[in-house]
Structure formats: structure tokens, C-alpha cells
Amino acid sequence: MFCAKNSSTESDSSDNISPVRKKCIRVIDDTSDDDQLPEPWLWQERRNSQKIWYYTMTSGIRAAALRQLGGSRRQLDVFNLIFDDVFWENIVTETNRYADQIRTNSRRTRQIDDSWFPVDSNEIKRYFALTIIMAQVKKPRIQMNWSKRAVIETPILRKSMPLKRYLQITRCLHFANNNLVANKLSKIRPVIKFLNQQFKEVYIMKEDIAIDESLMKFKGRLSYRQFNPSKRARFGVKFYKLCESDSGYCYEFKIYTGHDKINRDDSASESVVKELSESVLHRGHTLYIDNWYSSPKLFMTLSFNYKTNVIGTVRGNRKHMPKDLCNIKLKRGEYAIRSCNGILAIKWKDKRDLYIMTTKHETVEMTTQGFNRTPKPNCIREYNKGMNGIDLQDQILACFPVMRKYMKGYKKFFFYLFDIGLFNSYILCNKINNGKKQCYVDYRIKIAESLLENMPKPYYKERRQLSSGDMPERLHGKHWAHFPKHIDPTTSKLRPSKPCKVCQKNKKRKETTWECKKCKVSLHLPECFELYHTIVDF
Questions:
Q1: Cα 71 from chain centroid (whole Å)
Q2: 458 DSSP assignment
């Protein structure tokens, strides 16, 4: 089972970086959790007497995570903030356990080949590095990635791991003990708990946050599979996500398994919002939600009891909504307002009627922005911007997903969660480097390269020991080794020299007449030559 680290106190303002300016329009006295909510819903056509809460946190990467990084800003070190040793060791333990269960179960028609040997954390990391590369260089079948045909060859996969071993690990890949109590998510539950806690422990979100759902494409057999014709995938499994509006950082997620209700007095949508936002309440966040979640009761509860500002679209027929607002006929660009219990309800006519509620605004202010000069209510512009984070994440994850087709649903869940964690580490890397953004594709490739470079390659049985009649071992180096040679002479210089690559990086002005025959890089012999070929940061 995963064992997550103890989280630091979230209210400690020194436990983070990247300070964000605190916003508040009006100073409000605190309201205790057990305050009674006002009961009557008397909507009136007047300005809203709103409560706007302070944002009490300072967003950024937590101090504990920064201490773990030290002075390093490399992509792999940031990646390890999310996927630490606990994560990899659990996969190693459960994969080896599952392989033993397959081998000892005589009823299985497909047994593991006798060449199977237990995996370790280094080999698992190399396996995931190859999986990331295969997502970038897409081919119709896995076997084609190991092909030697020149037109489709990807040599790095063949050099890093035999195809047979990759397929063995894929088949045995496991994340939980099968002997424990089973439920709908039991085979992936340890990963869900670990990542949900890990995402919170390394980062504090900015003020604007959003809750929405994503649909993971899945056409297999599952009792909680969804059909949504408005989504591109249509068939799939629904994920609820709490994300930062600005970056799309996923702070917490939940997989829908057929029921959402926790408290029988709440609707399913209210239960989802309360469960996902539990860890960020009483901080003064501004939460953005769409019309499936929104209701006057939920808005009042979040504002009065949990000190959270809320803005969201709403359905006109929701319970406690003003009935007369629905009956008003508007022309395009017109709006009508009602207020009650600190909530402003707005009906605005664009191409169709749009209903929106807010606990943050006193009245409607029409504004224009960008190329579209059509006036819009300011709360609608804020809502569109606030809901952007989850859409941004979904768009990026859909481009090069590590996830692919699997017969087992829990494996597809795992790789989808791995994609979310990889994207979160990319956001952290950009924030650590003070906003110097790199392309997400480049980041993924760099992670795969770093994992392959830093994890030693196991000895595979496919590389058999040489017999006495084979080529001597001393001659094997011609296929892979690096050798020094003098820099080729030119017409003007018989013995030319160039700046040493290692010395140049260490800000030393020294030249050499030697270079690496394979790398074509000038290097001093022997120290600089050895450093360049053995150390990542030479």
C-alpha cells in the first residue's frame, strides 16, 4: 500500500513561495461554522448585499517540497516531487506479487514465460520512460516500436529493453493486493489515495479554483460507464476534478462509480462539491462551477458556513430559484437581476437565456473585452476565465496521452492518473523556473531521456554470455564505445585546437587538440573526457 508523507500545516504562510496579492472588496467579520443559514427565500429586484471573503493563503510550491529540491531545478527532480520512491516501490511490490500469483495459479490458461524475473524500481522507471516515448512516437501496434525497418525504426526502445520483457511487465503491472477486500476501485485505490494526497502536499493553489468533470474514453464493460453525447469520447468514465483556474493544476479528483451522495439531505451535485472542496474551505477561495452543481442552497452554504466565494451558471428551474426571473422576456443584450441572502441571480439574454449566480458581485456591470466588442456582464467574463483551467488540462492531455487501449479497466485508469500527475509536475517545473515556460511535449521527452540516462540497464537473458568461440569481450566496444582522436587538420592549421566543452561550461578558457570521435565534441584528456561521458551535469 502507498504510505504518503505527513503534510505540513497549510495555514503557515512561510510554507510556500510565489506570493499572490490578497483581494477583498469589503472587510467582513468572520462567521462561525455553526451559524444558522437564513431560511426564507425572498428574492427582490435590488442590489446584492454580498459578503466577499479574504483569500488567506499564499499560493506556490510548499517549503517542504523546495527543501527536497535543494538548489536543483532539473525536470527530473521536479518530476520526483510527485512520483517519489514510495510510488515506485508500491508498483514494484504489487507487480512482483501479481506475477507470483499468476505462476502459482494452475487454472490460468496464459502462464508467464519461464524467463520472467522480478522487476525493481530502476526497471519500472525505464518501462515508464519507454511508455512516454511510445506516446510521442505513435504507431499502430506495440511491436512496431521494436521494428528494425528503416522507415519506422525507433532504436532507443530496442536498445533500452527487449520487446518480450516490455510485454511481460505490461501484463503483470499491478497496483494493489488482490487478496484484500474488493470493490469497484480496489485495484487502483492505493494510487488514487496517494496522488490525491501528493498533489496537495507539494502545492497551494491561487485564489481562483474550479470544479468540473472530465470523461475518460472507455468502451469496455463497467457498471459505471457513462454515455455523454456532448463529449467527444461519448462513452467513458467520469472524473470530477478540482483544479486551479490559472494553470489547470489538478488539486484533487474523484472517480464516479455510480453514486455521489454522502449526506442524504444533499443532492448528488452538492455532495461532489463539498467532498472535493473540503480541503480548501475557509481560505477565501473563489470557486467556479457549472449549472449541474449550482443551486441557491449550495451557494449560501459555501458563503455563510465555509467562507468561500462562488460564481457559477445555474438552471432556471432549480429549487429556491426566483420564479418571476424565469418568466421575464428579454431582448438580446438585456439582463434582469434578483438578490436574496447574499446571492445575486442574473438572467442575461445572448443567443439564448443564460442564468448565473454569484456571491461576489453587488450588481451587473456590462464590459467589453478583446476582439468581441459585444458587452457582457462582468461576472460572466470572470466565470469564463475561471472555468478555463480544467478545459486547458483536458486539451493538453488529449494530445499525447500515455494511456492507450487496455483490456483491464484499472490499467487504463492508472495511466490516465499518471498523465494528470505528469501534467502537474510540468506546471510545478514552470513555476519553479519563474515563469520561463517550456513546451509540454519537450518536458515529457526530457523526463523520458532523464529516466533512461539515470536508471541503470538490467542484464537481460537475451544478451547471452559469449562462448569461447565468439568474438572476445574486448572487441565489443566498437559497437557502442566513445574514443578520443585529434581534431582534424585544416588548410590553415595542421594541429587545430578548440575550447573544451567541460571547461567552457565551468567558465574556464582552455583549448584542446582532442575530441570525441563519436560525439564530435572537443575535450581535454583524460579528466574532461571522462566527466563528459559519465556525469549529467558536468
A1: 24
A2: P
Of residues 470 and 388, more confidence is placed in 388
Query: CB under 8 Å to 310, separation ≥6 — which residues?
Result: 286, 287, 288, 289, 298, 299, 302, 303, 357, 358, 359, 360
Judge contact between 290 and 316, C-beta under 8 A.
no
Helix axes 440-454, 388-399, angle to 10 degrees: 60
Take residue 394 and report the three cell numbers written for it: 483536458
Question: What residues form DSSP beta bridges with 345?
Answer: 338, 357
Name the pLDDT band for 456 (thresholds 50, 70, 90): confident
C-alpha cell at 318: 432549480
Grid cell locating 298: 449550495
Whole-number average pLDDT of the chain: 85
| Backbone phi and psi for residue 36, each to the nearest 5 degrees, phi listed first | -80, 130
Lowest mean pLDDT of 6-10, 318-322, 389-393, 513-517, name the range: 6-10
Rounded Cα gap, residues 491 and 382, in angstroms:
67
List Cα–Cα distances, 68 to 182, 382, 486, in angstroms.
Answer: 36, 36, 43
How is residue 454 written as a grid cell? Answer: 539515470
226 closest CA partner among 255, 265, 193, 196: 255
The answer for residues whose C-beta is within 8 angstroms of residue 526's C-beta and 6 or more apart is none
- What CA–CA distances, in Å, run from 315 to 143, 320, 321, 418? 50, 11, 9, 35
pLDDT tens for each residue of 191-216: 999 999 999 999 999 999 999 999 88
H-run or E-run covering 421: helix 409-432
Highest mean pLDDT among 139-143, 400-404, 434-438: 139-143
Q: Assign 505 to helix, strand or coil.
A: helix
- pTM higher than 0.70 for the full model? yes
What is the per-residue burial (b if ≥16 Cβ within 10 Å, else e) of 322-360?
beebeeeeeeeeebbbbbbbbbbbbbbbeeeebbbbbbb
Share in percent of the chain as helix, strand, coil (round to 5): 35, 15, 50
Helix, strand or coil, per DSSP, at residue 79 = helix
Q: And the C-alpha cell for 135?
A: 506516446
The C-alpha cell that represents 96 in the structure block: 512482483
479 confidence band (pLDDT: 50, 70, 90): low
Residue 1 has what pLDDT?
Answer: 54
How far is residue 177 from each of residues 3, 98, 102, 169, 188, measured CA to CA in Å? 14, 8, 13, 17, 10
Instruction: Tell me which residue of 135, 126, 142, 134 sits closest to 88, measured CA to CA.
Output: 126
